[in-house]
Design a protein that fits this description.
Blueprint: E1 2-6, H1 12-20, E2 26-30, H2 34-43, E3 48-49, E4 66-69, H3 93-103, E5 107-113, H4 117-127, E6 132-135, E7 145-150, H5 169-172, E8 180-184, E9 221-225, E10 228-232, H6 234-240, H7 253-262, H8 266-273
Parallel strand pairs: 1-2, 1-4, 2-3, 4-5
Antiparallel strand pairs: 5-7, 6-7, 8-10, 9-10
Helix pairs in contact: 1-8
């Protein structure tokens, strides 16, 4: 099986395939972020990096069986300016469409954020399928609703939300010590965008987001008690994205969280991929 992954990031699609034990001959990754590429190659050195999506041509590739991608979402996200296809990053969706038509894969998957129905309809019309909305909170406890367009059959699932706390079974399965990266006692020294969450009241983790150049994030700090605040480190983020322990090891917290915030929840992707016929 040959796989083509556009906007591959740190290759969460590849993690999902390996988690399921699905064998593939070649994994072609189109990515331009140097840290994402480095993390991918550190973990999967046989990955064939093929550069920017705008330079990828089907004629340069073997027959593609599985074609996947999560095109940049900044133009669609309700947390942004919602420029939709007027955003240069969101226009890259049409590169996905171009290569889908050129490669004619057996199976495809596109992921993107919650957005206005009119934009959903444009994407659905281009791809010829309606999206299925899946929230990561049923898989890892992170409140992360995403749309998935695919021709792979997705099994309905009956799951309970995973509620989070320091004593939750989810965290008892891993080393809990790295969870607390930094304790901050002075509220007035915290950034203005800080939004504390009390774990005793919190059912799910907020959506993990790209850090950009920020040193912290509203979804990375949780109120513990009184005037003490605890910052969750990147290992905690790995748990909430279903990424193997220390997959992003060796980089700064900011870089690791940026990569993880831009990534896929591996357990959701594996739930979709498990119905790929192996013959």
């Amino acid at each position: 099986m040959n796989v083509l992954s556009l906007f591959d990031g740190m290759s969460c699609g590849q993690i999902a395939l390996n988690k399921l034990g699905i064998k593939y001959n070649n994994y072609f990754a189109s990515e331009i972020d140097k840290y994402a590429i480095q993390v991918t190659q550190n973990n999967y050195p046989n990955t064939k990096q093929i550069g920017s999506v705008t330079d990828v041509k089907a004629e340069d590739l073997p027959n593609i069986d599985l074609f996947i991608g999560g095109s940049p979402c900044q133009g669609f996200s309700t947390s942004g300016k919602m420029l939709n296809f007027d955003d240069d990053r969101s226009k890259l969706f049409f590169e996905f469409v171009r290569l889908l038509k050129e490669t004619k894969p057996k199976y495809f998957l596109l992921e993107n954020v919650s957005m206005k129905k009119e934009w959903l309809d444009i994407i659905s019309n281009e791809l010829g399928v309606e999206p299925i909305k899946i929230n990561s909170k049923y898989f890892t406890g992170q409140n992360r609703p995403r749309y998935y367009w695919t021709n792979i059959t997705i099994d309905p699932f009956k799951r309970k939300e995973i509620n989070l706390s320091f004593d939750n079974e989810l965290f008892n399965k891993v080393d809990i010590v790295p969870f607390v990266q930094k304790k901050i006692k002075m509220f007035d020294k915290l950034p203005l965008f800080f939004n504390p969450y009390n774990l005793s009241d919190l059912k799910n983790s907020p959506t993990l987001q790209s850090q950009g150049n920020r040193q912290t994030n509203s979804s990375s700090i949780f109120h513990k008690k009184g005037d003490e605040y605890y910052m969750a480190n990147s290992r905690y983020w790995e748990i909430l994205q279903g990424v193997p322990k220390n997959y992003t090891y060796g980089y700064s917290e900011n870089i690791r969280k940026n990569l993880l915030g831009n990534g896929w929840t591996v357990d959701v992707i594996a739930h979709i991929f498990k119905n790929i016929p192996l013959k």
